[in-house]
Design goal:
By secondary structure, the chain is mainly β. Helix content is about 10%, strand content about 50%. The protein has 2 helices and 28 strands. Mean pLDDT is about 90; it is low at about 1-25 and about 40-60.
């Protein structure tokens, strides 16, 4: 075969292979609107100001360490752990609507039972907040280093990172209903199928616990499991150090597959159709198909995102290193 013929054949093979590759490999990262978590002297809402400025946030701004986020139906709440506060942001326009003092190093948030729940890592307690005015309704002692929250419809479950256990609190009163051993450094929690699922970051496992605290199973996943969520059928676990997400069958914990995502895969949510995964090391969010684990779209965020929330039409991401939150519409 001539050299020119070889080149033509090579080009055809290359184009054929390229056509077979997932579309995400050829797609560019899509932008998100980035909103500063600070007051704007111009009087514009934070979202309007961010759009007007090209979504840029000054890299020299001191960060308050926004890490966790939750949606209450009107506002997203952001835990700014270095300020020991939670900040309220109105979702319809991104306007800042107040900051409220909580405990030391708030790192996890949950909206459940008409209240906002805050896990304070260094205070070893959980606070129950009235979202209407930010008032503290109750403060409840838990284990050492609370850093994850879940709700089973009646009780609040708390992952205690340093004591390697989970605490069950009655949501109505804050009474401790029990504390149960799990794996090393539990960080992520989800409630599904009458069970609490726990991501054990240092054990590379997921623990399944019944509603009364009985151990139902322990399942191996990837390196550094962090976030955990259900798609209504299966359990999905992000592996922070593995740059992957693992799909477990909820009925028996069987690992169905593991899929590549980004560096530092952390927070995960399900929007009713697709999964959204924060990649802390890449400063991105991946939109993932629960059917085959393929990445459908990748969005750029601010610096160092860890978590995300879904408000019914938009995804919100706090940026730990940028002192901001990023937002995009779900399409």
């Amino acid at each position: 075969m001539s050299i020119s013929g070889t080149r033509v054949l090579t080009s055809v093979v290359f184009l054929t292979v390229a056509a077979l590759l997932p579309s995400v490999s050829r797609a560019q990262t899509q932008p998100m609107t980035e909103i500063p978590l600070s007051s704007n002297p111009s009087g514009m809402s934070a979202m309007t100001a961010a759009v007007a400025e090209g979504t840029a946030v000054g890299s020299e701004a001191r960060t308050a360490g926004p890490e966790a986020i939750a949606f209450d139906g009107t506002y997203v709440w952001v835990a700014t752990q270095f300020n020991d506060t939670v900040t309220r942001v109105r979702v319809n326009d991104g306007a800042l609507a107040g900051s409220f003092a909580v405990g030391k190093r708030p790192v996890a948030l949950l909206y459940a039972g008409a209240y906002l729940w805050v896990a304070n890592l260094l205070s070893d307690n959980v606070m129950k907040i009235n979202p209407a005015n930010g008032a503290i309704v109750g403060t409840y002692n838990v284990g050492d280093g609370p850093g994850g929250l879940a709700y089973d419809g009646t009780n609040i479950w708390v992952a205690n990172r340093n004591s390697n256990d989970i605490t069950k609190l009655r949501a109505s009163t804050g009474a401790t209903m029990g504390t149960f051993a799990v794996g090393k450094r539990p960080v992520g929690l989800a409630y599904f199928g009458s069970s609490v699922w726990v991501a054990n970051n240092f054990s590379n496992t997921v623990t399944r616990v019944s509603a009364n605290g009985a151990l139902l199973g322990t399942y191996k996943v990837g390196k550094g499991p962090f976030g955990i969520a259900s798609d209504g059928v299966n359990i999905w676990v992000t592996n922070y150090f593995g740059k992957t997400v693992t799909k477990l069958r909820a009925s028996d914990g069987l690992a169905l597959d593991t899929y590549p995502v980004g560096d530092g895969a952390a927070g995960i949510v399900f929007d009713g159709v697709n999964l959204w995964i924060v990649n802390n090391g890449d400063n991105t969010v991946s939109k993932v198909s629960p059917g085959n684990g393929s990445i459908l779209v990748t969005y750029g965020t601010g610096k160092g995102p860890f978590s995300l929330a879904y408000d019914g039409s938009r995804i919100w991401v706090p940026n730990f290193g940028s002192n901001s939150i990023s937002m995009t519409a779900v399409q």
